Amino acid sequence: MSYALEIEQLQKTYDNGFTALKGISLQVEKGDFFALLGPNGAGKSTTLGVVSSLVNKSQGKVRVFGHDLDIDLSKAKQLMGIVPQEFNFNRFEKVIDIVVQQAGYYGIPRGEAKARAKQLLTQLGLWQQCHQAASTLSGGMKRRLMIARALVHRPQLLILDEPTAGVDIELRRSMWEFLQQINAQGTTIILTTHYLEEAESLCRNIAIIDHGHIVEDTSMQALLRQLHTETFILDLAEAVHTLPQQTGYSACLLNPHQLQVTISRQQSLNEVFTALSNMGVHVTSMRNKTNRLEELFIDLVQNNQTGLRGV
Amino acid sequence: MTVAEIYIAWMTIVRKEIKRFMRIWVQTLIPPSITMVLYFVIFGNLIGTRIGSMGGFDYMQFVVPGLIMMSVITNSYGNVVSSFYSCKYQGNIEEMLVSPIPNWVILAGYITGGVARGLAVGLIVTTLSLFFTNLNIHNFAIIVMVVLMTSILFSLGGFINAIYANSFDDVSIIPTFVLTPLTYLGGVFYSIDLLPEFWGLVSQANPILYMVNAFRYGILGVSDIDVGLAFVVITVFIVVLFTYCMHLLNTGKGIRK
Questions:
Q1: Which domain holds residue A232?
Q2: Which of A54, A87, A108 sits opposite B98 (nearest CB)?
Q3: pLDDT at B84
């Protein structure tokens, strides 16, 4: 198996003595859409910082498409594109200049860089703003500018550190589509995000990091299978004032028009609907009470914290 | 990276740097020119006429090479320190750090930017000085060499200052408390022959003295110190500062966590 990214026993202790990474190991397959999740301060950005060489590691190995960062950093960098969490462009420069300049840092001739910048800025809906100073862009536009900048040298691995933070839902969805598109074209993507529905709908594999440890590293499907129960909110056609008699699942009436039902993974929703229908309760619509990944995420992180307290 | 790619990367930094100081020319090119014109008027014309000759030349002629060199020094230094620190402050230094550009190319790019601004201001000041005095050229090669080497040296100094700077205050501390006194005491306004022996010897520890005098030699043909020694001193400083800059870049001091 060839990997886009391999991390072995990575450790990072900052000058102030804080150990952000405590020997994490991780592998991301070529072509994957990979989520790296974790609560604030878990070590996500440090991990990505080390991979992108903005943070000096204390120990461990990092390989990008087989290129060891300690031996062949230049080659590894050529294969990566980085979209950081914070806006880190010169806000006084024009949008087009920021992208063309970035291409120049990778040794791409100016003419070709301009053509690539035009293509990317058009794709990301920024071409009309190309001669504006970056400071005049909206938050969403700035995020897209950073994506365009990261892609101008056509990297094989794109690292996105919370790319949709503060972006409205419409724009977020269009960014998802764009990212899915470039992933389909072969670019490996590593994503950190606090929007768990984003990770669930985009990513095939996932790692959860907490307190500098990887607490889960698996496929999204396998992780979601770990859910033992799932809770749904059912919207009822007519008002119900007493809780319907139920067998095999637990329910509670949130209000006369909403019923909360929790079922185990072994159960089918059909059973619930049939039972409710037999009782004359009709369901017009339903939704998950919380995002499935969110439930698991909280479980895993809480378990890890309990474990750490035990230590 | 191939040689061609390295050239493109270097040119990208140089273009960015020149564009930056040209975009804010009112802050970068005009103030030093006005300051120097004031020096020419006050020290050269008003006071200089009462001083008489120095080193065999009238005071205005004597002081002009030093003032040109002073503007080259402060602007080379100022360009790199402000530009690189701004890059750090805004975070866009990361654009270069995540790219495959070798550290020496990043350094070379900023140094070239500093040299470009130093030369641009030097040229403007030289042109303005012609309204006040006649300048002869004693040795053009020496003039070019000294100006280039001095601006490289102070660009390197500005780079080190920028790496250590944690605030905009730190950017101005060295120019105010180190650079300006050294420049004023570096033989810009006087010949060290006028100083008592002890202070003359102390002055020889000031590297700026060598640059100012070598440049003055290129223009007027007179110098308080040996020009060959001046080139040795400047070269040694360049090598030391370049090595230190590379050490700072390679270890990521101030730019990588």
A1: 227-292
A2: A54
A3: 95
Q: What is the pLDDT of residues B90-130, one digit of tens each?
A: 889 999 999 999 999 999 999 999 999 999 999 999 999 98
pLDDT in tens, B152-179: 999 999 999 999 998 888 888 888 888 8
- Put simply, the answer to whether A104 touches B4 (Cβ < 8 Å) is no
A77 at the B interface (CB within 8 A)?
Answer: yes
Structure-token pair, residue B84:
């690189």
A309 inside domain: no
Residue carrying structure tokens 């270069």: B96
Best CA proximity match to B101, nearest among A104, A117, A69: A104
What's the CA gap between B49 and B27, in Å, rounded?
Answer: 32
Å from B161 to nearest chain A CA?
20
B132, B44 in Cβ contact below 8 A? yes
Q: Do A64 and A183 belong together in one domain?
A: yes
Whether residue A233 is found in the same domain as residue A219: no
Within a domain: A240: yes
In a domain, A116, yes or no: yes
Alpha helices in B56-139 (DSSP H): 59-90, 93-97, 103-129
Looking at the fold, whether A18 and A47 belong to one and the same domain comes out as yes
The CA-to-CA distance between both ends of chain B, in Å, stands at 25
Residues of A in contact with B249 (CB under 8 A): none
Q: How far is Cα B29 from Cα B49, in angstroms, rounded to an integer?
A: 28
Write out residues 66-125 of B within 8 Å (CB-CB) of A.
86-87, 90-92, 94-102
Prediction pTM value: 0.82
Domain range list for chain B: 3-251
Q: Which amino acid is at B20?
A: R
Query: In whole angstroms, what is the distance from residue A20 CA to residue A242 CA?
Result: 52
Number of domains observed in the structure of chain A: 2
- State the best of B99, B104, B251 to mutate against chain A, taking most chain A CBs within 10 Å: B99
Q: Is residue A299 part of a domain?
A: no
Q: Please report the pLDDT score of residue A41 as a whole number.
A: 83
> Is the interface score ipTM higher than 0.95?
no
- Mutual angle of helices B30-39 and B59-90, in 10-degree steps: 160
Chain B nearest-CA distance from A300, in A, is: 29
Q: Which residues does chain A have with pLDDT short of 50? A: 309-311
Kind of pairing between the strands at A59-64 and A157-161:
unpaired
- A215 & A231 share domain: no
